[in-house]
Every structure is written in C-alpha cells, then in structure tokens.
Amino acid sequence: MQIRGLLVAAGLLILLGGGIWWSNRAxxxxxxxxxxxASPKILSVTEGDIRRIEVARREGEKTVIEKDASxxxxxxxxxxxxxxxxxxxxxxxxxxxxxxxxxxxxxxADAGQYGLTQPALTLTLxxxxxxxxxxxxxxxxxxxxxxxxxxxxxxxVYTIASYTKESFNKTAAxxxxxRMLTFDTEKVARVTLAAQKTETEFGKNAQGEWQIVKPxxxxxxxxxxxxxxxxxxxxxxxxxxxxxxxxxxxxxFTSAAPLAVVTVTDAAGTQKLEIRKTKDDKYYxxxxxxxxxxxxxxxxxxxxxxxxxxxxxxKLFDFGFVDPSRIDFHSAAAQTSVAKGGExxxxxxxxxxxxxxQMLLDKLRDLSATKFAETGFGAATIDITVVSxxxxxxxxxxxxxxxxxxxARREGExxxxxxxxxxxDELQHAASDLKEEQAKPAxxxx
Length: 446
Hints:
Layout: H1 2-32, E1 41-44, E2 50-57, E3 62-67, E4 73-77, H2 85-96, E5 97-99, E6 102-105, E7 121-127, E8 132-140, E9 146-151, E10 157-161, H3 162-168, H4 172-175, E11 190-195, E12 198-204, E13 210-214, H5 222-233, H6 243-255, E14 257-266, E15 269-277, E16 283-287, E17 293-296, H7 298-301, E18 326-330, E19 335-341, E20 344-347, E21 350-351, H8 354-366, E22 371-373, E23 382-388, E24 393-402, E25 405-410, E26 416-420, H9 421-432
Antiparallel strand pairs: 1-5, 2-3, 2-7, 3-4, 6-10, 7-8, 8-9, 9-10, 11-12, 11-14, 12-13, 14-15, 15-16, 16-17, 18-19, 18-23, 19-20, 20-21, 22-26, 23-24, 24-25, 25-26
Helix pairs in contact: 8-9
C-alpha cells in the first residue's frame, strides 16, 4: 500500500510539473507575439544609424539635417544654420520610429485618393549603409485626427495620428538654434557691457564669482551679474521672419540710437551683441555670430541698459548668512569685542544673550549703501572688524560722518559707500545694547 501511494504521488508530481512547463511556454510564446491590436510600425530604424534626414513638402520647402564629422547634427537646407540640439534630438527620435493607427488597405490601386501620389510631406532617412527609408504623408482622413501615410517598398496604406506627423514635420525655423549669442555659460571668462556712457568689465574671482574689473576693481552684486549673463543666453532671434522683415529691421537698427553693447569671451573666442532703441521706443539687436537684425522685447533690452554702479555690491560686509567667529566694534558710544565659542557668543569670557547678539549680526548684515562716492571721507569715528570663514576672511570697515549721511570705507577698496544716518544709529544701538546671559536660578531643594 505504501509503494502504491508513492507511485500515485510521483505521477501527480509529474503531471503538475508538466502543466507548469506548458503554462510557462505558452506565456513566453504569447509575449513574443505582438498583440492583435498593436499599432504596426511604418518606420523603425536605430537612431545611431541615421546620417541624413530630409523633410520635403508639397509646397516646395525642404529642410535637411546631416551628421557632421564630430557626430553632431547640422542643417544644410534651406541654409547652413546651426541647430538647436534639444529640438533636433527629439526630431530624430520621432523620425526613427513612426507607428500607425491602423491599416486602411493592404494594397491600393489608387494612391492618389489618399493624397499619396503627390504627398503633402515626404520624410527621407539616409542610413550609414547608404540605404534610405522613405515615408509619405498624404491627406487628412475623413474621421478623427489622422492622416494617410505609406512607406516606400510597403504596399499598405496606413493612418497615423496628426500629432505623430507633427513630431517630425519640422521646418528650418523649428530646428534652428535661435540664440543670438552661442557662448558656453560654463566657460565664460569675461563680459564687457558698454551702456549709459560707462563701460563695465566683469571677470571671475578665485571662487568662480563675478567681480567688476573695470573701470576699477569693485565687488560685484553676484546675483545681478549672473542674471545679466543668463539673460544673454535668452536673447533669441525670430526664425520665422521673412527677408523683407529682416531688411526693414536692418534699416530701423541703422537709424536707431545705441543702447548697449555686450561682448562675451569664452574658450572659443569673443561674441558681441549690439542693442539699439528707436525714437518710438522699439528695440533691435544684432549679433556677431548670426546674420540678421531682430526685434527685442523692451523688458529684455532694459536688463542691459545699466551703468557700473547698478552691478556693484552695496553690502558693507560679505559674511552673508553664515555667522562670523569674531566682531570688534569701536566707537564713542560702544567699545566691544565678541567671539563665538561653540553655539554661544562671549564677551570677556562671559556668555551673551542670544537675542541681543543676533540683533547686532542682523544690523551688520543689513548695512548697505544707498549710493557710492569717491571723495569726502574724513577721520573714521567708527571702526568695525568682522572675522568669518573659519578665520580665513577678515573685513574691516571705517565709518565717517558726512553732513546728514555717513561715508563707509572697506579696507583695500578704492571707493566709498554712502549709508544713511538711521542705519548707523541702529547699528551703534545694537552694539551698545549687548547683554550678558543671565544665570538660571538654582533649583530649590525639596
């Protein structure tokens, strides 16, 4: 009886294993077969094999991009324009794989009824082996957002979605690099702006931040300088303008008054952008790296209509939002030296109340110029030294009363900062109002 039971169990195990094997095989076969309702591919090539793409239209316009010697894309028709890398990448991806909605006919005797004898659009891909793949796009289908299409060497007539067509139906205006300056933002070493009868030259310091080099070595407002450079990359041309439009723009530019000239130098060389303003407050720009004169939005043009002082750092101290490690403040109203130890600040070895010390820090951070001056500084009546950056950075500022205002001088700088009397009064009050931390009362014994 035991042997019989073992044989029955073995038989069941064999049947179960066979069932699992058959089920797995059937599943794999199902996976290997396309779904019955899957969209048939009309074009399907490896993107890396494509060497040339041509989009020809019934109206006669033709756009061609080709791989260059470095493996990048360039436009060769209708003119040798540089291309927008991101847009072209999407275009190549769309052209390499085109799926249909459905098959309309397996083989047609009259392609003309679908608009495929003289296609509205012909897409030709030339591959690295010299062979070509051709897709023809005809008329719109009567129902739904679809158009008729066929491929060379394929007798079928398909429909494809209108949005599929638009993904590869690109003109030269769509694919062009529309930047008027094409410098590499990561490799910019120098920028010069001539505007408002001043010329401001910017260079990078050891920390990679913009500083003013000319007319004198001034600290730059890093955010304002960075924004100007970033906005230079946002100056775009209108690729859809006609030859007549460009001719009119050139005439307007010639008669307009100069507003600003910007030159940018990166590893590849120097590029220049000229901006002019007409009597009726219209702005035009001309670049040294692209042909043509193009209109410019007023808000963009005004970003470059700035003098040197507009880019200067008006803050008297650079320690920012990282707490310094030592502050020395000397005036007739307050004589104090404080140093940070751990999380607390100390004066003469005694801990200070955090709220009063924070007030002093805030007033030092906020101390800013309303404008700049070159002369008029007398003897300093207030001297402030701030040490930050783990002791690596020391900033010394002297303040001198000048009429209703104060003049401030940073050590080692050629210019003066004009600050309000109110801001100096508040700073002196914060320095004289530092309080020592009160000891906590001892806990009462129970």
